[in-house]
Amino acid sequence: MMPRASRRTSRGLLASAAALSTTLLLAAPSPVGAAVSAIAPPPGWAVLESGTELATGAEFFRFKDLNQVEGHSAVRELNILRVDPTKGALRIESTVGASASARESVRDQLKAGFFAKHPPLAGINGSYFLAEPKSGFNGDKETLAFLGVSARDGVLNGLSCVVKKRDAANKFVVDAQGKYEPEYGNQAAVLQYGVPSIARLKASVTLSYVDKDKQDVPSSPTLTVGGINRDPGRAPCPYDKATLNSAKETLSPQKKPAYTTTDEIVLFNDGYDAKTPPKNLDTTPAITEDDSDGVEVSVDATGKMNLLKTARGHQSATAGGYVLQAIGQGAADLTKFVNDANAVDKGYTLKVTQRVEDMDLTEPVDHVTVQRSIDLDESVDIVSGIHRLLKDGEPVNILNSCARLHTSTGAAKEEGADYAAGDTCWDSRTTLGIDGQGRTVLATLTGPRDSAPGTPDGDFMGNVAELLRTGFGVVDAINFDGGGSTTMIVNGTRQSGRTDTTPVNSADPLTTGERPIADSVYAGNGGLAVKATP
Question: Model-level pTM?
Answer without folding.
Answer: 0.91
